[in-house]
Design brief:
Bound molecules: adenosine-5'-triphosphate, magnesium ion
Largest sheet: 8 strands, mixed
Helix content: 25-40%
Mean pLDDT: 90
Number of strands: 12
Strand content: 15-25%
C-alpha cells in the first residue's frame, strides 16, 4: 500500500543571475506536500513564480536549491507520470484532435497496437465531449475546444499527477464553467492528484481541497495553506449559498489585496513563521468577528 503523500517539495528556491547586481531571488524556502488524490491550487500575483514551481514539478525546469520528491524519488526530468496542461494549448497544428491525443498515448504505451491506441485516445476525447470533432485540425477548433484537447491529452496519459497552469483563463465565462465542471467530475471520480495554478479565487474555491497562498515576488514565499472545508459534493452554482463560502472567499481576497504585499513586513516585524510548515488555516468564522480557526498540521481544528 503506497503512502498517503505523493509529492514533497522541500525547500526549493529559484534564482536568476543579474548583471552586476548579484542574484535575483524569485522565491525561496518553498515547502509543500501533496497527498494522493488531493486537488491543490496555488494562488498568487503575477511574477511570484507559480509557473516556475509548476515547471520544476513537471521536470521542465530545475530549482536553484532544494529538491522535489515524487513517490519517494527525487525528480530528475520530465515524466509521463506528470502530465501538464499548459495555458496555451500546445497542440501539434498539423495533426487532428485524435492525432494529438493518440500521439501522447503512443508515447506512453510504445507496445500498444494502433487500434488500441486509437480506442484509448477516443475514450478520453469522448470524455471531454469532442467525439464529433475528432478528425478536425486545431485551426478548425474554438479556444475552448482546443483547451479540451489539451485536457483529453493529459488525462489519456492517466498520469499520477496532473499539473495545470491557468488552464481556463483564456476562455469565456460559460466555457470556463463547463470545463471546470468536467475537470472536477473527472478528477473527483478518479481520485486524481492535481496541482493547478489560478488567479481566480472562485475557481480555487470550487476545485481545490487546499489553496496555497504565495506572497508577491521577488523573494516570494508560501504565506499559508488554506483548507477548503466546503462539502466535497459541492456544485458550482450553489457555492455562494453554502455556509462558510463568504468567509473563505473574503479570506482569499484579503490575502490577494493586502497580505500578499505586507507579509514581508510581518516577517520582518517578527511574525512567528516556520518555512517548513506554513500555517494551515480554515477561514470559516464560528462567531462574529472571530479570527480564522487554528488547525493542526493535518488540518483538523484545535481548541483555542
Ligand atoms: N530566464 C529568466 N531570467 C530572469 N528572470 C526570469 C526568467 N524566467 C522567468 N523570470 C522571472 O521569474 C518570475 C516568475 O515567473 P513565473 O512565470 O513563474 O511567474 P508567475 O507567477 O507564473 O506569473 P504569471 O501569473 O504572470 O503567470 C518573473 O518575474 C519572471 O520575470
Ligand atoms: Mg504563470
Amino acid at each position: 500500500m503506497p503512502g498517503k503523500r505523493l509529492i514533497s517539495i522541500e525547500g526549493i528556491a529559484k534564482r536568476y543571475p543579474r548583471k552586476g547586481e548579484g542574484e535575483l531571488t524569485i522565491f525561496e524556502d518553498l515547502w509543500l506536500s501533496i497527498d494522493r488524490g488531493e486537488f491543490v491550487c496555488i494562488i498568487g500575483h503575477s511574477g511570484c513564480g507559480k509557473t516556475t514551481v509548476l515547471n520544476i514539478l513537471a521536470g521542465l525546469d530545475t530549482p536553484s536549491e532544494g529538491v522535489v520528491i515524487v513517490d519517494g524519488k527525487e525528480i530528475s526530468g520530465p515524466s509521463l507520470d506528470r502530465a501538464v496542461i499548459f495555458q496555451g494549448h500546445a497542440l501539434l497544428p498539423w495533426m487532428s484532435v485524435l492525432g494529438n491525443v493518440a500521439y501522447a498515448v503512443a508515447a506512453r504505451h510504445r507496445d500498444w497496437p494502433k487500434a488500441k491506441v486509437r480506442e484509448h485516445a477516443m475514450r478520453f476525447i469522448d470524455l471531454v465531449g469532442l467525439g464529433p470533432a475528432a478528425n478536425r485540425k486545431p485551426s478548425e477548433l474554438s479556444g475552448g475546444m482546443k483547451q479540451r484537447v489539451g485536457i483529453a491529452r493529459a488525462l489519456s496519459l492517466e498520469p499520477k499527477t496532473l499539473l495545470m497552469d491557468e488552464p481556463f483563463s483564456a476562455l469565456d465565462a460559460l466555457t470556463r464553467g463547463t470545463l471546470q465542471d468536467e475537470v472536477r467530475r473527472i478528477c473527483v471520480s478518479s481520485d486524481q492528484t492535481v496541482l493547478m495554478i489560478t488567479h481566480d479565487v472562485d475557481e480555487a474555491i470550487y476545485l481545490a481541497d487546499k489553496i496555497v497562498l504565495m506572497t508577491n515576488g521577488p523573494d516570494a514565499h508560501v504565506a499559508e495553506i488554506v483548507k477548503n472545508t466546503l462539502p466535497r459534493d459541492r456544485v458550482r452554482n450553489d457555492l455562494h449559498r453554502m455556509p462558510g463560502y463568504y468567509d473563505l472567499r473574503n479570506h482569499l481576497m484579503d490575502f490577494l489585496v493586502t497580505r500578499s504585499a505586507t507579509f514581508k513586513d510581518e516577517l520582518a516585524a517578527g511574525l512567528p513563521y516556520d518555512f517548513r510548515s506554513p500555517p494551515v488555516v480554515v477561514p470559516i468564522v464560528t462567531k462574529e468577528g472571530a479570527e480564522p480557526a487554528p488547525v493542526d498540521a493535518k488540518g483538523d481544528r484545535v481548541a483555542s
